[in-house]
Amino acid sequence: MTIGIEWVNDYHSAASNLSNNDDNARGFYNRLQGVRQFQYGDDLAWDQDFEQSGVGSPASGTDQLYADDVDIAFFSGHGSQTSLVFGNKSHDNGAARNTEMRLGDLDLEWIVFDGCQALTFASGAIWNRWGWPVFSGLHFILGFSTNCYDRKDRGEKFADRLNAGWTVRDSWIRACLESENSDVRWAYLRANGEGADTFSDHWWGKGSVSKDPRPPTQFFYLDGTC
Fold this sequence. Notes:
Blueprint: E1 2-7, H1 21-31, E2 35-41, E3 72-76, E4 83-85, E5 95-97, E6 110-114, H2 126-131, E7 140-144, H3 154-163, H4 168-179, E8 185-193, E9 216-225
Parallel strand pairs: 1-2, 1-3, 3-6, 6-7
Antiparallel strand pairs: 4-5, 7-8, 8-9
Helix pairs in contact: 1-3, 3-4
């Protein structure tokens, strides 16, 4: 039942600065029932924390110490269809790319990309962007298929639903409906595997949790209007 968060508001002119990602991520971190394992923000939030060691260029990933060493990870900041974007480029290159991630091979079950467009379907391109080979035991990526707004309370809303025993997917959908405008689309990507069906996953201690889909054999994508 371990939790990790990273957030960025200060992008040092690499992208527009944001205002509420600290409150958003910390709201999730402080409300969700579990063991709080790490929280890093602004210049202490590094892309390498989400990347596999030895993968990509530069190959400086340390996810085995951070994102992949918790049960659920929450990133709040800028995103794109192929990466999570960070303000500090001095430890890697400032972008945690899909090609550098191998999530769930250690521990991680669920990850939130609380940023724009990471889960855009793009005529099925999402299967190759975020499906194979990013899912290495991971159950869900939760995020948005469109741009989203700089909200301060989505994280706590998500945590409250998880604590109340809602499924992971329904908790995310409801948090998005309660925090976003109708021009925004929530999304998730999930995996099944042999003997693993993640559809009804709950937060640990709140209901059923599937075994890890390792290796994944099926991917399921859904998005909808907030």
